[in-house]
Amino acid sequence: MKLVFQHENPIIVGNIKNILENIGVKTQLRNEYIGGAAGELPPTDTAIELWVVNDRDEERALSEIDNINFPSSSIDWYCKKCGEVNAASFEICWNCGSERADIA
């Protein structure tokens, strides 16, 4: 098995899992439930991991992932729920925990 992707947002990881499985690449998730330990563990240890089951699918999976357009922004954003200003790199409002509206 080979690690091909990791991210702290389970929606993004789930979406990539679905994309890979739709092209016939079998996958497995790891660290699905470790997010509750965020803050107690380093952020790199709480990311959800997506692994390909067959090593021979690694290159195909990585190629498919490279073709996915991830939202990117260098502009700070305002939370629609509480109005707080958040850094562009944040996907979740640091103040109230609401998800950024243009990320999914």
Commentary on this structure:
The protein is α+β, with helices and mostly antiparallel strands and 104 residues long. The protein is 21% helix and 18% strand. The protein has 2 helices and 5 strands. The strands form 2 sheets. The chain has a 3-stranded antiparallel sheet with strand order 1-3-2, covered by helices on one side. Strands 4-5 form a two-stranded antiparallel sheet. The mean pLDDT is 86.
In short:
The chain is α+β, with helices and mostly antiparallel strands. The chain has helices at residues 10-22, 58-66, and strands at residues 2-7, 27-30, 48-52, 77-78, 85-86. The protein is globular and about 45 Å long.
Could you outline the blueprint of secondary structure elements for this entry?
Layout: E1 2-7, H1 10-22, E2 27-30, E3 48-52, H2 58-66, E4 77-78, E5 85-86
Antiparallel strand pairs: 1-3, 2-3, 4-5
Cα shape: globular
Average pLDDT for all residues:
86
The total of beta strands comes to 5
Contiguous helical run count = 2
Question: Top keywords for this entry?
Answer:
Endonuclease I-creI, alpha+beta, 104 residues, three-stranded antiparallel beta sheet, globular, 21% helix, two-stranded antiparallel ribbon, 2 helices
